[in-house]
């Protein structure tokens, strides 16, 4: 018994050290955001601030349009998420339940798009979007991402697992496909839809290269671009920048806490079933 | 992945309920029509933003372009020969391969160790599990700025901590022999959350009874891990490796924010190089040629991984 307990304390010790190392960049950020400018520029660096100095946050809100960045990211990510849910759920229903010529061919076409890295299409897409005058616009940030082969595949796999008898019964009752889709398939697939929702929101939230290419105006920048530009602007006091980081991390943190479960479920299904 | 692709079996027909052949035919046409309507939004978007650009990339790669992206002169495969004979391209290919080597094995092994240590149902484990998945909340833009401060040339808190163990200050981002390692270190940290979550759910999906029976058979912790856990979570291991390699190939933001490809091109990853050619120097043709080469490399690598990796993967 005593061996077991000492085993366990070694385990906890190892885990605590690992946690400290992994959390260090975040704790450092949090701690610096409360330091005064003098404290954050001191060497040797201070680990903890002398007090809670909230002035960095007010300074940051005055100089950096953080709220604007967050709003932009939120609008763009939400629109992409909703768009992907609709287009993927429609396409997945067709592939799972409808009979039509060219199904196998079209499905392979969908799957093949997952192989095309975004970087290959980025140059022509930039030229297209620019020719439509979509630079510095929400539609330019949103529309190219509204369809998702991954989402279609994920939902189709889920739809195929739903009990078939239900649909037979609904058909016998005279339900059309649109009603079956809306009233039966979608409500029964909430877990898969939740996985796709979290996944697409998170990926568009952290999208960097595309917004960098097609936004020039500060008012259209998303979180990722806005934060990356901080270093070039007059704000060079690190504690103010880090206060910005803390503010920007808050929404992602909430999202992680809310979305972790459905995401893990989805990833696990993908990883285990291959 | 292919083996799960099962085309839906045709719905069983119930001839007794069919009143006439005309309504059956109408139903069939209705179904076809609806199918194409349901596929249309995705197909249109893929057409405009994936297939057309793919073909346009091939087209652009054979031309010289003006800064507006208009083609100026047909030059055949000159862009490709230029790329394939330029030392800049081979340098960035080499840098990318080194980057994969630095980030993928480290990231996978670290996540595996953390998951193996923290999967048990003990008091406080949920908290550790939350801590280890936290980097997932940090996106690459935000993470890069945090590490930019940690790597600061004069105020680096990392150098300060290293000074306690007698290691002299490192010029993390400005020393050509350190810059790529610094970028890799930051990337490993950034991806740890995702890798850890996949590994953890892999380990947790191995039945508790298996561990119990191994324990009863007198198998030690290490033996159990290597003989039972590792083979059973090989699908998760494989998944994480494939995803990590692809994402390493596509890394861009950390380089753009932290080093701009320097010092002395030591962090000039492929995608950053493409970005430079296309959007800084406005050489869309040569950028497209490089992007297509990247596409071929990623495709080949993924095929090779599936060919050789899948054999060793044990699916339950």
UniProtKB/TrEMBL annotation, chain A:
SUPFAM superfamilies associated with the record: MetI-like
Keywords on record: Cell membrane, Membrane, Transmembrane, Transmembrane helix, Transport
GO cellular component: plasma membrane
Gene Ontology biological process: transmembrane transport
Domain of life the protein comes from: Bacteria
Spans traversing the lipid bilayer: 74-98, 105-127, 139-159, 180-202, 237-258
Domain ABC transmembrane type-1: 70-259
Alphabetical list of InterPro entries matching this protein: MetI-like, MetI-like_sf
CDD domains tied to this protein: TM_PBP2
Topology of the protein relative to the lipid bilayer: Multi-pass membrane protein
Subcellular location: Cell membrane
Record-stated family: Belongs to the binding-protein-dependent transport system permease family.
PANTHER family from the UniProt entry: ABC TRANSPORTER PERMEASE PROTEIN MG189-RELATED-RELATED (PTHR43744), SN-GLYCEROL-3-PHOSPHATE TRANSPORT SYSTEM PERMEASE PROTEIN UGPE (PTHR43744:SF8)
Protein name stated in the entry: Glycerol-3-phosphate ABC transporter
Organism: Paenibacillus pini JCM 16418
From TrEMBL, chain B:
Pfam families: BPD_transp_1
SUPFAM superfamilies assigned: MetI-like (SSF161098)
InterPro entries per the UniProt record, alphabetical: ABC_transporter_permease (IPR051393), MetI-like (IPR000515), MetI-like_sf (IPR035906)
Recorded family membership: Belongs to the binding-protein-dependent transport system permease family.
Protein name per UniProt: Glycerol-3-phosphate ABC transporter
Domain ABC transmembrane type-1 per the UniProt entry, residue ranges: 89-305
Source organism per UniProt: Paenibacillus pini JCM 16418
Keywords attached to this entry: Cell membrane, Membrane, Transmembrane, Transmembrane helix, Transport
Tagged with keyword Mitochondrion: no
Bilayer topology term: Multi-pass membrane protein
Record's GO cellular component terms: plasma membrane
Localization: Cell membrane
TM region positions: 33-55, 93-115, 127-150, 178-203, 224-249, 282-304
BP GO terms, sorted: transmembrane transport
């Amino acid at each position: 018994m005593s061996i077991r307990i000492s085993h366990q304390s070694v385990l906890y010790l190892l885990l605590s050290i690992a946690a400290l190392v992994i959390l260090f960049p975040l704790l450092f950020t949090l701690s610096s955001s409360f330091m005064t400018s003098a404290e954050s520029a001191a060497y040797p660096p201070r680990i903890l601030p002398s007090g809670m100095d909230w002035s960095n946050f007010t300074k940051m809100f005055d100089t950096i349009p953080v709220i604007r960045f967050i709003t932009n990211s939120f609008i763009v990510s939400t629109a992409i998420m909703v768009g992907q849910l609709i287009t993927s759920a429609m396409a997945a229903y067709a592939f799972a339940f409808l009979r039509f010529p060219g199904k196998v061919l079209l499905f392979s076409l969908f799957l093949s798009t997952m192989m095309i890295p975004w970087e290959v299409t980025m140059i022509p897409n930039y030229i297209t979007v620019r020719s439509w005058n979509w630079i510095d616009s929400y539609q330019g940030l949103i529309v190219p991402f509204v369809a998702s082969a991954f989402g279609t595949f994920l939902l189709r796999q889920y739809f195929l697992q739903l009990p078939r008898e239900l649909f037979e019964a609904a058909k016998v009752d005279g339900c059309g496909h649109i009603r079956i889709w809306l009233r039966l398939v979608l409500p029964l697939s909430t877990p898969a839809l939740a996985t796709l929702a979290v996944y697409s929101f998170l990926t568009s939230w952290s999208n960097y290269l595309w917004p960098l290419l097609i936004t020039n105006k500060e008012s259209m920048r998303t979180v990722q671009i806005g934060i990356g530009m901080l270093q070039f602007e007059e704000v060079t006091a690190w504690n103010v920048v880090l206060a910005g980081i803390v503010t920007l991390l808050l929404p992602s943190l909430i999202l992680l806490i809310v979305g972790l479960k459905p995401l893990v479920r989805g990833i696990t299904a993908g990883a285990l079933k291959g | 992945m292919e083996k799960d692709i099962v085309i839906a079996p045709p719905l069983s027909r119930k001839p007794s309920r069919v009143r006439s052949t005309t309504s059956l035919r109408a139903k069939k046409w209705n179904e076809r029509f609806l199918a194409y309507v349901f596929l249309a939004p995705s197909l249109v978007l893929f057409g405009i933003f994936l297939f057309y650009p793919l073909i346009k990339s091939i087209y652009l790669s054979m031309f010289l372009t003006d800064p507006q992206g208009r083609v100026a002169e047909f030059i055949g495969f000159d862009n490709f020969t230029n790329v394939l004979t330029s030392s800049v391209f081979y340098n960035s290919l080499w840098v990318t391969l080194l980057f994969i080597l630095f980030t993928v094995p480290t990231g996978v092994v670290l996540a595996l160790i953390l998951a193996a240590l923290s999967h048990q149902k003990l008091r406080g484990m949920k908290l550790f599990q939350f801590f280890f998945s936290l980097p997932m909340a940090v996106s690459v833009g935000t993470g890069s700025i945090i590490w930019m401060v940690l790597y600061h040339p004069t105020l680096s808190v990392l150098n300060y901590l290293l000074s306690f163990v007698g290691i002299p200050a490192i010029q993390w981002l400005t020393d050509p022999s350190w810059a790529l390692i610094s970028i890799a270190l930051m990337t490993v940290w950034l991806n740890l959350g995702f890798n850890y979550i996949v590994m953890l759910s892999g380990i947790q999906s191995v039945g508790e009874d298996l561990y119990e029976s191994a324990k009863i058979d007198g198998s030690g912790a290490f033996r159990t891990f290597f003989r039972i856990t590792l083979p059973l979570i090989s699908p998760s291991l494989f998944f994480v490796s494939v995803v990590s390699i692809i994402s390493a190939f596509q890394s861009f933001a950390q380089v753009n924010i932290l080093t701009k490809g320097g010092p002395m091109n030591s962090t000039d990853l492929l995608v950053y190089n493409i970005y430079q050619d296309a959007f800084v120097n406005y050489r869309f043709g040569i950028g497209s040629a490089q992007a297509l080469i990247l596409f071929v490399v990623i495709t080949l690598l993924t095929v090779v991984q599936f060919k050789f990796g899948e054999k060793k993967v044990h699916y339950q």
